[in-house]
Amino acid sequence: MKELLSQVNSPEDIKGFNYEQLENLAQEIRDEIIINLSETGGHLASSLGVVELTLALHTVLDSPQDKIVWDVGHQSYAHKMITGRKEEFKTLRQLDGLSGFPKRSESEHDHLNVGHSSTSISAALGMASARDLQGQDQTIAAVIGDGALTAGMSFEALNHAGHSGKDLLVVLNDNEMSISENVGAMSNYLSKIRSNPYLHQVEKDVGKILNKIPAFGNQITKTAARLKNSLKFLVIPGILFEEMGFTYLGPIDGHNVKATIETIENAKNIEGPVLLHTITTKGKGYKIAEDNPSKYHGVSPFNIRTGKKKKTRDKPTYTNIYSQQLTELAKEDEGIVAISAAMEKVVGDFKDEFPDRFYDVGIAEQHAVTFASGLALQGMKPFVTIYSTFLQRAYDQLVHDVCLQKAPVKLALDRAGIVGKDGETHQGVMDFSYLRHMPNMTVMAPKDENELKAMVKTAAEYDEGPIAFRYPRGEIIGVEEEGRVDTLEIGTAELLREGKDGLILAVGSMVPRALQAAQELADAGIDLTIVNSRFVKPLDEELITKLVKEHDYLFTAEEHLLQGGFGSAVAELIVDNNLDINVKRIALPDKFIEHGSQDDLLARYGLDVDGIKKQVKAVISNQ
Ligand SMILES: Cc1ncc(C[n+]2csc(CCOP(=O)(O)OP(=O)(O)O)c2C)c(N)n1
Ligand SMILES: CC(=O)[C@@H](O)[C@H](O)COP(=O)(O)O
Ligand SMILES: [Mg+2]
Description:
This protein is an alpha/beta fold.
């Protein structure tokens, strides 16, 4: 362990360090992050960018009494290391190891479980309001990136905080990057502040100049006021935040430990909400990541010298298949447009092929959905492509702006099911339940990459209302490619295997596993019928009812939580039709699913082939 880092077991231990020691400690922490992540993978570039800022915050504030609330939390590795977790850092994102995000159960220095973006200012303002009601004296700081600032929630919180006048420190970590380049008008505004050093020099004199502008006489007063305002907008950095009720400090170099510490000390003594604008470099200190921060935002294990992945993929991913199919269809169909929320990679080359038909709206899932509704109501075919977990944000927009309008919006839910190492906040295991109860919604899940292509085509051609399909994170199965892609008839399932001892209705990623389990159980004398449901809504009532009548045991299988999912839909069908059968639902339990590799988690929760076999055997052999 490094010389200085070995002395640090809690933030208290850095308080006696001088500036030079803090700079050296920053270097040691960086090395440690790089070495560890080269083995575990994780969010590299974002964490490297805030090492000095983290040390500065912990030097000035007294954590955990003072609270630092990290936005998204993917940049919190230095924070983890100096808050007593450096020894466990090598277990980052592994099964039963440290979480990749702040987590309240992990440390008293983590005040909010995060992973989804743009929650920090709201939560910090809530904490500040509680502090005041309880008569306590604490500094509450939210640390938010320029990407996270693009989300509606951040603006809602700034709006509230500025008006409330509460003591609150918002540290804006501006590295000009979201996962890819940051987008939007706010991002342009920050660029203007950043790129005009002249503004900073005149900043102090501006107040004096403005005060000399006379303010009398009706018309003159109005003109003078307007002039005064335009001048302010021209020359005072951060005037937007000032006008919202914040004291704006900065921009400062967030890698300069001394300047950052001094400014945070100042900020602590200012009454009311303060926005401290720091400029940092994403990937700082690791040249390869600095040169390509987008690629090194999140990494799998890599070679430190070359930056290359240790293990390359054998097969394409579901994301590749989806985006290729969408791009292919868009060549023939000019109505197709694609929307992403700050994750342009989800649509692959679509952006380059059709720059005018691609919209990256920033971290704004709610807006993305209602924006898509507008496009659809005007005759376009919008494919809103968002991770399953992040679409949770847009629940009411789906209900009110899409389903209620019967708008033919197409929802492509990437990273559905168990996503693995990002853990609780990122598992895509609630989408069947949050989508299937919405009137007018159709919900599909493909058993393999060929069926995914068919679903993209089905969605493109379906114009009766909204339609959603969800597909997993990671590599495709690798089935033989089908030349021709046909559309699917809505609400039709596929009978894959016939047996007499039990019926498995499976959906999505569980279909090939159920088939494999059935083949292996056949050797043990259990003969199963397997159905690929394809649709979670509407279900193939006719086929399911017929098969249920022919079997004594029914199993449903899905990579989703039990509550409200596919199995629940089938159970409703059985009750509604007075059918009589023993039912066992194979799904994830009613809890937040932790981090770990996808395979480890599938095995832990009995959703792999062995798990299916065990659960089927347990029911059938016990009778
Ligand atoms: C609601 C939501 N949408 C999308 C994401 C995916 N995401 C994680 S980090 C990130 C970019 C954040 O950029 P910024 O806040 O500037 O942090 P940086 O990585 O630049 O330090 C995005 C889009 C998310 N975590 N939450
Ligand atoms: C922090 C965050 O939300 C993203 O960086 C996310 O971790 C990306 O996940 P994938 O690696 O599955 O694209
Ligand atoms: Mg950023």
